[in-house]
Amino acid sequence: MVAVNSADQFSELLTNRLVSFQEQLLKGTKVLTGPLDTTTGATPKDEVLAVDRWKLYRYRPVVQHPAPIPVIIFYALVNRYYMVDIQPDRSMVRKFLEAGLDVYVLDWGHPYRGDRFLTMEDYIDGYMNQAVDFVRRTSNQDAVTLYGICQGGTFSTIYTALYPEKVKNLAIMVTPIDFHTDTGLLNVWSKFLDVDRMVNTFGNVPGDFMNVGFLLLNPLRLMFQKYVDFVDHMDDKNFVSNFVRMEKWIFDSPDQAGEAFLQFIKCMYQENQLVKGAFHLGGRRVDLKHIKQPVLNVFGEKDHLVPPACSRPFNDLVGSKDKTILSYPTGHIGLFTSGKSQTEYAPAIAKWLSDHCQSNGAMTRAKIEAPMTATETAVPRKTTGTKATTKKRGRKKTGGAR
C-alpha cells in the first residue's frame, strides 16, 4: 500500500497507474491478436474402437515394455476427457505413460437428439462393457484397471461391482459416491430438482444449460474474478494460452442424454441408492461389497463440485482389503491443473497404478479365448446402438428411478 499525503501525490499515483494499465492493454492486444497455441490433448494417441458417438483411444506408450495390465480412463459425461491431457506441461496422461503404463481413454462424444432415451444401462452395460472387453482382448489380459473420474468414477464403481471378473484394479478420482451431504451446493440443489420436467422440456439436457448451473455454484469466482485476473495478466502470452485452453474445456460441454441424466439425478442425488444398496442396473442389484479389488480413492479437500464428504465414504463401503486414499488441498480441477498436479498429485497416482498393473501370473484371455478375427481388430463403426440401445424407445422403470 502506497501512502498518499496530498492531492498532488494522489494525482501522480493515479496517472502512473493509468499509464501502466494502458501499456499493459497495448501489450495484451498484441498477444490476443497474435498467434496463440491453444491446442488441447497434445499426447499422441490412436483411435482403436468407435461405436455410435463414442471412441476409444490408446495413448502411444513411451517405454519399450509398458505394464501388462492396461488402464482405461472413463471421464464424466458432462465434460470432455481431454482435461487429463489439457497441455504438455499439465498432462496426467503423460505422467502415467512416463510411469510405464498402457493407457486408454474413452471419449463419450456428443449425443444426438435420437439418443434421448439412452439409459445408464446403455452406458455401463453397453458402451463401457464393449470398451473393457475390447481392451481385454487386445491386451490378452483377463482383467483391466479402471480409472474413473467424477461421474465416470461412479460409473466405474457400478461396473466393477457388476463385472468384478473383468476388473483388476479400481481407481476413482473426484468421484461422488455418497450423494446425501449438505457440504456441496450441487448436492443440495439436486435434491429439489424437477428432473422430469427438465427432460420432458429439453429431451437431451443442453450442455450450455448445465454450464450455467455450474457457474452459479461459485459465481463470484467463476463469472467475475477469473476475468479480472485475466486482464491483469493479458500481456503474458503463456498465461493467455493456458486461460483459453481452460475456457475451451469448460464450455465444451456435451448435451446430456435425457433418460440417463434423469436416472442419475433421481437414483443418486435424490435417493442415494448406491450407498443404500438399492440401486439396480439391468435387473441386478449393485452391491459395493462385491468390489474386492485393490482400490484407490483420490479427491480434493477444497472441491466444491464433489466435496470430500461425497468421496471419502467409498473406502468403507467396498469389500476390498487393499484400499488407499489420496486427498490433496486443492479443488476439483486443481488436481489436474494446479502447480502441484505434475510434481506431486499425478506422480503419486501413477505410482499406485504402476505398482498394481504388473502381471499377477493369472491366465490371460489369449489362453481362454480364440484370438480376434481381422474384422474385430479393425476399428468397427456402427450405425445402430448396442443391444441395450436398440430396444424399443420409451420411458421405463430402470434402476428404481421412478
Summarize the model shown.
With 402 residues, this protein is of the alpha/beta class.
Model description:
- The chain has 402 residues and is α/β, with parallel strands linked by helices.
- The chain has one domain: Alpha/Beta hydrolase fold, catalytic domain (Rossmann fold, 3-Layer(aba) Sandwich).
- It contains 17 helices and twelve strands.
- The strands form three sheets. Strands 1-2-6-3-7-8-11-12 form an eight-stranded mixed sheet, sandwiched between helices.
- Helix 3 crosses helix 4.
- It is globular.
- It starts with 6 loop residues before the first helix and ends in a 25-residue tail after the last helix.
- The C terminus is likely disordered.
